[in-house]
Amino acid sequence: MTDPLLALRPWDAPEVTSWGRLPMNAVDRRAGAHSLDGGWRFQLLSAPHAPVGGAWSTATVPGAWTMQDTDDLPRYLNVRMPFAEFPPRSPAEDNPTGVYEREIDVPAGWAGRRIVLQVGAAESVLLVHVDGRPVGVSKDSHLAAEFELTEFVRPGGRAVLRLTVVKWSDASHLEDQDHWWHGGITRSVLLYATDPLYLADVDVRAGRDGELRVDCRVRDTGGALPAGWYLDGELDGLALAQDTAFDRENAEDERVSAFLGEARLRTRVPEVRPWTAETPELYGLTVRLHRADGTVADTSRHRIGFRDVAVVGRDLLVNGERVYIRGVNRHDFHPLTGRTVTYDDLRADLVLLKRFGFNAIRTAHYPGDPALYDLADELGFYVVDEADIESHDHAHEIADDPRHLNAFVDRVSRMVLRDKNRPSVVIWSLGNESDYGANHDAAAGWVRRHDPSRPLQYEGAAKRGWADPEVASDIACPMYAPLEECVAHALSGKQTKPLIQCEYSHAMGNSNGTLADHWAAIEATPGLQGGFIWEFWDHGILQSVNDGRPVGRGGAGLYDNGVAAPGYRWAYGGDFGEKDHDGAFVADGVVFPDRTPKPVMYEHRELAAPLRLELFRHEGLVVSNHQHFRGLDWLRGTWELVLADGRTLTAAAELPALLPGETAVVPFPLALPPDGGEAWLTLRVTTAEDLAWAPRGTEVCTPQVLLRAGAQAPEAAVREPAATGPAVTRPVEADADGLLVHPLLTVAPTLSLWRAPTDNDELGGMAPRWRAWGLDSLVRKVVSVRREGPSVTVLAEYAGTTGVVRHRQVLTPVEGGVRIDEQAELPAEFDDVARVGTVFETVAGLDLLEWFGQGPWESYPDRSGGAPVGHHALPVDALFTPYLRPQESGGRHGVRHFTLSASDATGLAVALDEPRQVSVTRYRAEDLTAVAHHDELVPRAGCVVHLDAAHRGLGTASCGPDTFPSYLVAPGVHRWSWTLRVL
Ligand code: IPT
């Protein structure tokens, strides 16, 4: 006999969003439930109608089978669907279908109770059978599906539960998000029991005025409700009672039903502590459903927060304050499981985000695990909760196709029904990249009616007109909009909605250039309120290089500090043998696959600093509280006076008591020594006490002001060496080609115009142009080598395929070394090059870099915030940032001078005429461009040193705007000087 669920062919039926599934609700049943997680019998069929009958293996639940021991491997495609069938179709034959089976022992104590199965997430179609009997069907891969099993199981007995998961379906067309395709059950499976009389839903409204309203729905499995039921509850010890006025009104309006109980609890909390992302104050709410005899039939517990959110004019207000949205887009990702994440994983994600100044998360592009919201409520994040709808490849066909209407409303409404009581959720999102059609408006209509307390956003609708009141978006939420367009809109006088980019600053590879410029504009322009960086994760899956398989759960410990252990690598698109794929575009996060922060995180932390430091010449040092809701008492500071001569003086800081937005002048903590040259004052700010997201002493920000410019800057020392010391007459050694001969250099200093293209350089079209110009393989031809006394002047031409750069190097002996004055003249056609500067290589053994300049982390001209000027030191191997696809990396901005030394303190010292971009790595640019993965790099024994007169900004052109014109390297004449001395 054909199974009715298979006969229904739900994978080919867009109208069928579920069958036999219980309605979504906000009653949390996790506590007290029986976990069905663990090993299940498993078979992978080639298609849903293929017979089950092969050998069983074991699969871990939750977990994608694509990350376990099967031949169906992960696959990365961005926009394009992984199969050719047009919506709503999916492949008839080649459709991996996982059959999961296990016994369930139903406690005898559940006799007379209502028994419910909850499947946390399954992609993309779930069929449920118990003992071979059909129970139900569900779609919507990132929300739980519940089924009542009361009629299917016997308390005290054992039953066979089968969950069949069909990978491809009509629903896949709505789940075409830009990440890996997987298959399986990816969130926990639970079994729980309730009384037949139960809380079907609880809807909490808690405003910042302390008003609490709890609306409850009550049902009974038998249908009719028993007489005399009632509700009570408490809020942290404060008793709540059923609102009799509400009951009376219901009765008068004939809304009382025998089958649906409705009641309201209400109170007003005096002196409420409002919830905000800065002050995530939670209250414990307990709602109890009683039978007529007073016994408790059901209980629902919630952690709630009192807060208001509203769009007023063009501002998004939280508790009446226009808050900055320092957001990130977050996917579910784990390098060992693909997308199954534990509570600890989620906690680690959010803790890291807090430590780096983020206060908002967009759940790109589907609802998260309930634990994500528990943590966002507790730690403090503003969440844009996004429904699981992205029909990217067929967006236009689907947005108005009535066959998909059910699915749109189903997905959006289920998310709202589940998450409506979350203080962290401040905005609903209808989904991503799905064009804009009537299906969206239908879903928006449902949301507006069900939850008028929160704004709604949808980028596809906002795109129709940022100020258009008719479209289904209360926020102007573009993606990757050029900053000048955003500013122009805010200044146009036509803005009607808050402008908060749903995606900006694409973090692929070495990226996020101009983030500081964005924030300067946001803070200077009323109407701009922030945005969500794309994205949190680099989705590199840990892969064994030998057999090409994902390592899976056993791989813990096979990576460290962003790098996979030898023999392993971070796989991206194409690495699992996919024919069509989108390569490294899946590695576009602000953290590596093991959550190691990329350097941009430090800049973000500084941009989000809760306090600011400024120097006003006549007033002195000014500290300001840059938060929205709290004082500075949770912070502690230390002053550091950084002097160019190598000294760093410290003093404890007394932070002023400031309300949000207030400023105070503070006395200079340390006397500025009259000598010592360039001087900077840094305020190193840490947490004053243990917080939920950071132990005491965690660094929060390091604002810095310049106290004295470099009166005795290296420039002076470099340019006038003879004036400060005895005349040096020992001639510089250069070979016949005019190349410096030096005992510590293996490759003499020459001109470099090339960097290993970043992802932005490649996808933004710069790198192809550079290659066309021949900048990656300039041919050096000596024009003349002229000796004048102890100096040598070398004229050379560096020929590309289309232009010639004239380069002059004057080598002059100075005390202890040589001064190199350089000039390069770029032809007009080289109007946008990666760098103009010097490259040389050193002997092996110089493994420590000490520098005076910005640091300690990697920084670039358009991404240099949060890297204060100081005396920094790092092993050379720690300077390089291991971006998944090797590219320009490891740069340090604003370097004045540095030494490279061996363990016996011998080595070389370089002083630059002015703060320059410097990089010291084990790789030539061509080493980096020759390979596709970090593990393929072979480090050189010596160092490859770049000193740049000019270095191009990074921008974000892999998806979005390029860097700004001010960060481009102009053609024409560039001059720079430096000295090289032996230590
Ligand atoms: C945008 C997507 O919303 C996001 O999922 C991701 O693909 C991002 O781009 C790029 O990494 S869509 C793009 C067409 C702007």
TrEMBL record:
It comes from the Bacteria. Keywords: Glycosidase, Hydrolase. SUPFAM superfamilies: (Trans)glycosidases, beta-Galactosidase/glucuronidase domain, Galactose mutarotase-like, Galactose-binding domain-like. It is an enzyme of class 3 (hydrolase). The keyword Metal-binding does not apply. Residues 722-981 form the Beta galactosidase small chain/ domain. GO terms for cellular component: beta-galactosidase complex. It catalyses: Hydrolysis of terminal non-reducing beta-D-galactose residues in beta-D-galactosides. Coiled coil: none annotated. The keyword Ligase does not apply. GO terms for molecular function: beta-galactosidase activity; carbohydrate binding. PANTHER family: BETA-GALACTOSIDASE. This is Beta-galactosidase.
